[in-house]
Amino acid sequence: MKKLTVAIDGPAGAGKSSVAKLVASQLHYLYIDTGAMYRAVAWLTGEKGIAADDEAAIRQLTDTMQIRMQAAAQGCRIWINEREVTEEIRSPEVSARVSAIAALPAVRYKLVQLQRQLAQPGGVILDGRDIGTVVLPHADIKFFLTASVQARARRRFLEMQEKGMPTTLAQVEENIASRDYQDSHREHSPLRQAPDAVFIDNSEWNLQETAGYIQRYIEEKQG
């Protein structure tokens, strides 16, 4: 049975990563967390004190940085320059700057090349903002997963509460709305639905319902 290349795109908080992890586990596919890659770069620029709009300094940083990923029970672990940052990259500070960092051509070029290399063997699920439109335009299956701003904010707020991250629902909703605008209006690789992507609004679905739908779709395509 041929293992396929699957792309899942959508805005922040739609549950792309959680769904992709669950489906990959069920199908014995490799989950590649592309968002974590961009978050790692955003984290590193913050650690180095580099402003999110200092493109020259960030370009220089991407020339020497090394990113490593490893499959784990809950998705994947990630290192940048040999430091594990799996937990650190989920902070509100990183969330606030990742869209600006991800929009920079130097960052996108570096990470897109790495993502394509990882996906080449097939049997992979990648999620992000531009997987089906830019990174893997010829992916075997593409999904565009979204939900209302309010539904996405509630999910992210509960997730951050469980991790003990101090924030409010209003702050999370404002951050998500701001990221939606930045992601869909950036000059390079903006967030948009690929013409051949399967559209899914999971505002009223839970994780298991969303993952179940996607898993069945992939299994039917596999034959």
Q: What does the model show?
A:
The chain has 223 residues and is an alpha/beta fold. 51% of the residues lie in helices and 17% in strands. The protein contains 9 helices and 8 strands. The chain has helices spanning 16-27, 34-47, 55-64, 92-102, 105-119, 131-135, 149-162, 169-185, 207-222, and strands spanning 5-9, 30-33, 67-72, 75-80, 83-84, 124-128, 141-146, 198-201. The strands form 2 sheets. It has a 5-stranded parallel sheet, with helices on both faces. The termini are close together. It is found in: Cytoplasm. Residues 6-219 form the Cytidylate kinase domain.
Rg from Cα: 17 Å
CATH architecture group name: 3-Layer(aba) Sandwich
Q: Output the CATH class name.
A: Alpha Beta
Number of domains: 1
Please tally the β strands and state the result.
Answer: 8
Would you tell me which CATH topology applies?
Rossmann fold
Percentage beta strand: 15-25%
Order of helices and strands: EHEHHEEEHHEHEHHEH
Distance between the termini: 8 Å
Mean pLDDT: 91
Q: How would you characterize the largest beta sheet?
A: 5 strands, parallel
| Helix fraction by DSSP (H/I, runs of at least 4) | 40-55%
The total count of helices amounts to 9
Domain Cytidylate kinase: 6-219
Organism: Megasphaera lornae
Family: Belongs to the cytidylate kinase family. Type 1 subfamily.
InterPro entries: Cytidylate_kin, Cytidylate_kinase_dom, P-loop_NTPase
Short description:
The chain contains nine helices and eight strands. The protein is an alpha/beta fold and 223 residues long.
